């Protein structure tokens, strides 16, 4: 019989690439991970790892076993969900991950609703960049995550993660509002929003930190327009980004949730680029009553946030 905990280690080795990385993810020593993988190989009765220099690679049998491991781990999540549904009431810790611009916009009303309807839940929020969400879900550091990508920088589907669509947002080019129209991106008479990025070829850019999804998107948008962005500043908070734009420090990309209250000295040019937000959770966990409650609360809070203001 194959040990599920060892299967999880093999799955993570396929994902992370090194035994040292797996050890860090599970707070084990590298020696302990190696011993567990060796025991799994004995259980399997076939070679699973090949030593290549100081590292290891998976054999074809191990790669096939990883695919089965994903299915097995998802089935265990589903079984846990079934048992949880048989209990009365919702309780326990719920770890929710969110990207920065969702925390002050979509999340507060959802947290209020969850706390009101399920007071025994212990709600804990962690702000993360989307690139870190899948690993945090897989490792159990998160139970639910607000996770996004962009149509110009789509994220590959993760076999260990399921999700439901929540929101599509338009992305804007944020530019200083001063100056004559002919000098402003997208502001030429008869100009199209599609021309806006090309007109920033010689502008200074404000982008996210290297390695973040926002940084990748800014680079790709400029590359699609035929140039490399001249980066002057790195900032990950859209309030800070817009303040820098207002101070004449450069131009930037800002999605709708990050541009709810732009400074008066900033003009927002709509682009044909969209950010796509999903509610993500471990594969198989969608039927868990806590996950279902979080999904329902986030969907409701998003509808309320997007609803037009009531007429007085």
From TrEMBL:
An MF annotation (GO) of this entry: DNA binding
Alphabetical list of Pfam families matching this protein: HTH_1, LysR_substrate
Listed GO CC annotations: protein-DNA complex
Region described as Disordered: spans on this chain: 176-195
Protein origin, superkingdom: Bacteria
Basic and acidic residues bias (residue ranges): 181-195
Keywords: DNA-binding, Transcription, Transcription regulation
PROSITE patterns named among the record's database cross-references: HTH_LYSR
SUPFAM superfamilies: Periplasmic binding protein-like II, Winged helix' DNA-binding domain
HTH lysR-type domain sequence ranges: 2-59
Family label: Belongs to the LysR transcriptional regulatory family.
Name of the featured protein: DNA-binding transcriptional LysR family regulator
């Amino acid at each position: 019989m194959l040990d599920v905990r060892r299967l999880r280690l093999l799955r993570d080795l396929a994902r992370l690439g090194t035994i040292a990385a797996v050890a860090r993810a599970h707070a084990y020593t590298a020696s302990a991970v190696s011993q567990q993988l060796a025991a799994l190989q004995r259980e399997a009765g076939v070679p699973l790892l090949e030593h290549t220099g100081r590292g290891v690679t998976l054999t074809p049998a191990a790669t096939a076993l990883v695919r089965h491991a994903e299915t097995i781990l998802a089935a265990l999540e589903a079984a846990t969900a079934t048992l949880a549904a048989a209990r009365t009431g919702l309780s326990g810790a719920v770890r929710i991950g969110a990207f920065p611009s969702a925390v002050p916009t979509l999340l507060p009303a959802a947290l209020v609703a969850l706390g009101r309807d399920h007071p025994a839940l212990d709600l804990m929020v962690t702000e993360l960049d989307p690139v870190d969400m899948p690993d945090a879900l897989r490792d159990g550091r998160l139970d639910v995550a607000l996770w996004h990508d962009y149509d110009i920088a789509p994220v590959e589907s993760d076999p260990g993660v399921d999700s439901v669509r929540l929101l599509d947002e338009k992305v804007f080019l944020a530019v200083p509002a001063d100056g004559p129209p002919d000098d402003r991106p997208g502001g030429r008479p008869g100009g199209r929003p599609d021309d806006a990025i090309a007109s920033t070829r010689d502008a200074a850019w404000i982008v996210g930190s290297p390695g973040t999804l926002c940084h990748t998107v800014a680079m790709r948008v400029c590359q699609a327009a035929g140039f490399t962005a001249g980066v002057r500043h790195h900032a990950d908070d859209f309030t800070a980004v817009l303040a820098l734009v207002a101070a004449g420090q450069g131009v930037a990309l800002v999605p709708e949730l990050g541009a709810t209250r732009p400074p008066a000295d900033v003009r927002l040019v709509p682009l044909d680029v969209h950010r796509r937000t999903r509610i993500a959770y471990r594969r198989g966990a969608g039927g868990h009553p806590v996950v279902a409650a979080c999904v329902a609360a986030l969907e409701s809070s998003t509808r309320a946030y997007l609803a037009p203001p009531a007429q007085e």
